[in-house]
Amino acid sequence: MTPLHQHYAIEDTAHSPQKHWLSHLLNGSYKLPGLEGKKGVLFSNSILETYIQEEEKHDNFELTSGKNRSLRTLSTGEQKKALLAYLLQQNPDFIVLNNPYETLDKASVSQLKQQLIALSKNRPIVFIFNRKDNSLTRNHPCHYF
User: Fold this and answer.
1) Is 67 left (phi over 0), alpha (psi -120 to 50) or beta?
2) For 15-43, what is each residue's pLDDT tens digit?
């Protein structure tokens, strides 16, 4: 059975620093088959931290609007769930997951994996990982870089 979307796994190493290619990937100018000319969003701890700082500095509660709580008061799993929901509202062509399980407990990892597996049926995923056992790719066809 051929997958509907092509997925990629990229090992995060010192030899391939993200600062050189990630912005090009997200804006569609990086030559990755199926993603050229498409717009992506980044799901990462650094993006999450940016939203937390934005809340603290400017009282801008984009990710938690309607919840009457700041991101800082949520568990790490709830923070990541809020970020993922917000990013998906942007309707990206693809999503880049940068070490998405980092800082999560086992139950939260399991829950997030299920969400991401479901998400992978609707759009391409680029999975950046430090450890191969942290990727979704065991049961999903993927191109490794």
Assistant:
1) alpha
2) 666 777 889 999 999 888 899 999 999 99
48: which residues sit within 8 A by CB, 6+ positions away?
71, 79, 80, 83
Tokens of residue 77, six digits: 């799993």
Cβ pair 129, 135 in contact under 8 A: yes
Helix and strand numbers (H, E) in the chain are 4, 5
User: How do beta strands 125-129 and 94-98 pair?
Assistant: parallel
User: Which amino acid type is present at position 91?
Assistant: N
Please measure the distance between the N-terminal and C-terminal CA atoms of the chain and give it in whole angstroms.
23
- Using one digit for the tens of pLDDT, what is the confidence trace for 65-75? 777 788 999 99
